[in-house]
Write a structure and sequence with these properties.
The complex is a heterodimer of chains A (171) and B (282). Chain A is built from five helices and five strands; from the N terminus they run ββαβββαααα. With 171 residues, chain A is α+β, with helices and mostly antiparallel strands. The N and C termini of chain B lie far apart (49 Å). In chain B, the strands form four sheets. Chain B has a five-stranded antiparallel β-sheet with strand order 4-5-10-6-7. A four-stranded antiparallel β-sheet of chain B has the order 11-12-13-14, with helices on both faces. In chain B, strands 1-3-2 form a three-stranded parallel β-sheet, covered by helices on one side.
Chain lengths: 171, 282
């Protein structure tokens, strides 16, 4: 059957967009294909891996398990919108400094989940970080440095001097 | 992975939503979509109309209603997990909501949606059973109430009719409750391999009433009535808890999958009933 085409108005990274979408268009495909924002990745497409995580109205959600029509009227932040010009977001800087990415596929989702976590609590314990990124899978098994990247970002966001790669633990 | 196409409506009122459901012979209710959208992608359900209830006002509250609390259809898992009224009066439900999936899912999915979906291994249905919740259901034909004990009919099958919406659940105050779980990825992560929700009431060291619910073990979340019977009238001693736990799978067809054999799951059911009872009787 043909679903009706619907008009949605969605703000993405501070820019208002007005688009026509099919009801079945998933938010991740809307971001990648309608808006050419390909930083948000399509991973498992089942809601497990979290590579597609974006922040919708302040809360981290999996954009592969949300229809674009559900986001009508919402404000969305994607990984393209977290840096301030050429200045990396503290979480991006943390991933850079602490080698928080290996292949990089999970990284956009990891960054968005970590930002949501740190905006709620900028001094999480290691257990809280691991719990907070529980919905993001890294198949390079790089969790150790991802956790350290989030710790780095938390320190930076608290105004402290973060510990970077010089403290990296070899594995 | 696109689902087949469908017509989408997002009514502003409950009456409009109920009318939209009644007007179609193949409509599904969408709130957070954490269960429905994966099923649609897999073509396990192919609704011709999706009725998004998330824009209806007045369904998103957790309310103190005197001798009970109510949780509206649009209350998300994350809110149930962090709400003070739930923590005080429906502890097991708050714990089960906090143990549901991961933060992205808890930010989007709803407590009532999880209950309406009736997955055989979902967390919150077990808490609803143990707490003696009542489901308030609406359709164009009127409203009705369904006791939790009558709500979970079979695997992925609740007592809801296709044209009905679970508008809210109400939970009586009183007693103490707890939820304990072993998730598929260890700790509380992912669906439970086995989990238990328990509720007990009583005074002067004697338990006057109890309910024990188990999820992840059989074809649906269920009340382990023999476990409850074994703890009622006791002082809640270690022996009484062990006796109650020993009946956790009585009369149940225990399922197995790659996460656990029948023997292992049956063992875990007893362990998690014991731990949940210890939480409320310590």
């Amino acid at each position: 059957m043909e679903g009706r085409i619907l008009e949605v108005r969605i703000s993405v990274n501070g820019v208002d967009h007005q688009s026509d979408v099919e009801p079945r268009t998933l938010l991740v495909h809307y971001l990648r294909e309608n808006l050419s924002l390909t930083g948000t990745h399509v991973g498992c497409e089942t809601g497990y891996c979290g590579a597609c995580t974006v922040i919708v109205d302040g809360r981290a959600v999996k954009s592969c398990t949300m229809f674009a029509v559900q986001a009508d009227g919402a404000s969305i932040q994607t990984v393209e919108g977290v840096a301030d010009g050429d200045e990396l977001h503290p979480v991006q800087e943390g991933f850079w400094e602490c080698h928080g990415l290996q292949c990089g596929f999970c990284t956009p989702g990891m960054i968005m989940s970590s930002i949501a976590l740190l905006e709620e609590n900028n001094d999480p314990s290691e257990a809280e970080i691991r719990h907070g990124i529980e919905g993001n899978l890294c198949r390079c098994t790089g969790y150790h440095n991802i956790v350290r990247s989030v710790q780095y970002a938390g320190a930076k966001m608290r105004g402290e001097s973060p510990q970077g790669a010089s403290q990296e633990v070899s594995s | 992975m696109y689902p087949p196409n469908f017509d989408y409506v997002a009514p502003a009122t409950l009456d409009e939503a109920l009318a939209a459901l009644a007007a179609s012979d193949n409509a599904k209710v969408l709130s957070g979509g954490m269960s429905l959208i994966p099923l649609m992608k897999l073509r396990l359900v192919r609704p011709t109309t999706v009725v998004d209830i998330s824009r209806i006002s007045g369904l998103d509250a957790i309310t103190d209603e005197g001798d009970h609390i109510s949780i509206g259809a649009l209350v998300k898992h994350a809110e149930t997990a962090s709400n003070a009224l739930v923590a005080e009066h429906a502890t097991a439900l708050g714990q089960a909501a906090g143990a549901t999936a991961d933060i992205q899912v808890r930010n989007q999915g709803t407590t009532c949606g999880s209950i309406a979906h009736a997955d055989l291994a979902a967390d919150q249905p077990a808490a609803a059973l143990a707490l003696g919740a009542t489901m308030s259901v609406a359709s164009v034909r009127g409203t009705r109430e369904i006791a939790a004990a009558d709500f979970f009919v079979d695997t992925l099958t609740s007592a809801l009719e296709p044209d009905e919406i679970l508008v809210k659940i109400t939970i009586p105050k009183g007693g103490k409750s707890a939820y304990r779980k072993l998730g598929r990825r260890g700790g509380e992560s992912d669906y439970p391999i086995a989990a238990a929700a328990v509720w007990v009431d009583g005074s002067n060291g004697s338990i006057s009433a109890a309910r024990v619910a188990v999820t992840g073990v059989g074809p649906k979340p269920y009340l382990a009535s023999e476990s409850a019977a074994a703890i009622v009238g006791s002082s809640g001693s270690g022996e009484a808890i062990a006796a109650a736990a020993s009946h956790a799978t009585d009369g149940i067809t225990v399922l197995e999958d790659l996460y656990g054999s029948v023997e292992y799951r049956s063992h875990l059911a007893k362990v998690y009933v014991k731990r949940a009872l210890e939480d409320v009787l310590a």
